[in-house]
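Practice problem: predict the structure.
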Amino acid sequence: MRTILIYLKAFIMPLILAILLLFVQAYSDLSLPNYMSDIVDVGIQQNGVNHSTPNAVSEDGFRFITTFMTNKDKAYVESKFKIVVPTGEYKNAYPKSAGRLYVLKEINTDELSKLDSIFNQASIDMLGLLSILYKDAKSIDEPVERTKLDMAKAYELQPILDEMPENKLLKNNLMGDENKIAEDQVGISINKSFMEELGIDITTTQTKYIIKMGLIMLGITLIGGFATIMVSFLSSRIAAGISRNIRQDVFTKIESFSFNEIDKFSTASLITRSTNDIIQIQNFFMFGIRMLCYAPIIGVGGVIMAMNKAASMSWIIGLAVVFLLLLIILLMIIAIPKFKIIQKLIDRVNLVSREYLSGLMVVRAFRTGDHEKARFEEANNNLTKTQRFINRTMALMPPIMMLIMNGVSILIVWIGAHKIAGASMQVGDMMAFIQYTMQIIMAFLMMSMIFIMIPRAAVSASRLSEILNTNITIENKDKTKNFNNTDGKIVFNNVSFRYENASAYALKDINVTIEPGHTTALIGSTGAGKSTFVNLLLRLYDVSSGEVLVDDLDVRDADIGTLRDKFALVPQKASLFEGTIASNVRIGNEDASDEKVIEALTDAQAMEFVNKLEDGIESHVSQGGSNLSGGQKQRISIARALLKEKEFLIFDDSFSALDLSTERKLRNSLLNGQDVTTFIVAQRVTSILNADQIIVLDQGEIVGLGTHNELIKNCDVYYDIASSQLTKEELDA
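Answer:
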């Protein structure tokens, strides 16, 4: 996984920006329940009045309420208010004001909090004394709506209160233990009475407060929504960029593989790793950046906010988290092992499918369709069973999660209702607590999803790391040498080669010189080492011992690209790409003109069929050349090599798909064409009759070397091959 995480370095700035935006998103999500609580508690229950300290109070009201304060508190309160005459703006704001007003000065939050506490205590003492005087059975901690107070009647008691000693005026509350919520409610109810006395419309105050809070919530929602969109945008770009870079590096790495490395990975596995595994990594980063950073923020923030609302109910969150963790752990124990093997099962399905499609002709010719169907069905069923097991297991999470969330909500409402009845909690706080609890649960759910994604992403990362960290056995030395000449000479000096983990040598003690401009042929039975011989020339493998010299330079000392650029290869199996005939031929020389392309096609005996096509050299070629015959594909492949015009021309059993007449014309064309060193690997003796030198291989060793006529007389292996293909007259000719 470390190898893959390195790719994050290129996207460090977008990642930091995404994390900062996640904090903005989390802050928005955590703020909304708090504002919703204020709308319910303050806007609806308290009519938009959120402080016990009045902004303005009549002179009689100020004298009345301060009667229930200590001298110290009374002096502090008087210092924070100023006396004004209700004219102008004050008269408009307080239309029922008759005499002088006490108006609150500009104060800070701490001062306001202290004033609220003083006014709360004074309000409680006032109502406590009034209830005694009026012998009213009302309880002070009843809902606000039931503690209406006629201030005009209350002011009539002022002479009596002035005569009472301080110890009778103070501490007359009937509440017993301290109850902050009840104190605030009493203080606010008295403040509302002061406001109504001055003619302030409580309904208007309430409406303004609700609209204000609503607009703030709307603004926060818009900011949070913008942050969410930007995080999604950035995480998608980061994930797509990482997958693009990994895909490019994987492709480049595979492209640099020698046959040694390619033999370690199946083609189907390389395709799966280059596609499905990279998609798994992309999905992990796309969702992981959002969830892995957002979930802890929202989880920790939700706990803090919930504790501020109702610390006594925090055990409910703990209970929900315990059940949630048990669910997540159980699912991880069951599902994660299956995630680890699913990529290998996908490999197997791809392998069977590819083998079936590439060998479709063989399957139909030998009527092995039932066997192939059984192979595919087995691989497909294994993958289906595993995916079905994982899906069924994960399908249990949503209903169980809903059960936990609904159960927690019911428990919070049941306990919160009792607290609300006891005036120790407000309705809005309970609603906010529910939302914070749901956010905490969702945070754990997101973390569980990440923990489920991590094993599968880790498996994919490991499979990709195997490719990226594979040591290339054939690569350039730190200091390569340049070719001093371009004669076109090849020398094999005591060359032996053995495939990795093979017990026997594929080639042994090969000593041969291929002269510049000559045509050298290689023939032998199947498995004699002909293709291995060619692979060593191109340095697709390195010799086990000895040396291969090209233009007097050991191929291991040369730059690989420069070395291979000296050769034009026509493989046994023609490989064409989707495009046109011209585009396929121009792979040999991208800058070649149409005339050069036609000349190469003519030399390759391909213009005969190309001229019959409606679009000529611009005729469409399907993927793999599926719309052409084997001979047509082979001739286009030969034209491609001829257009390259390099020092060495290799035909690796390239004439097998051609009829004898076309092959003869092609050989005659080559003899009259380019003066290059030509190397022909052949099965047919007729393809190499005119070669300057024929190498006969048998079980990896050279058993014959010479011209056709010389080998007929001196090499039994060659004679056996030739006699099986030529008539007696042709042998004696």
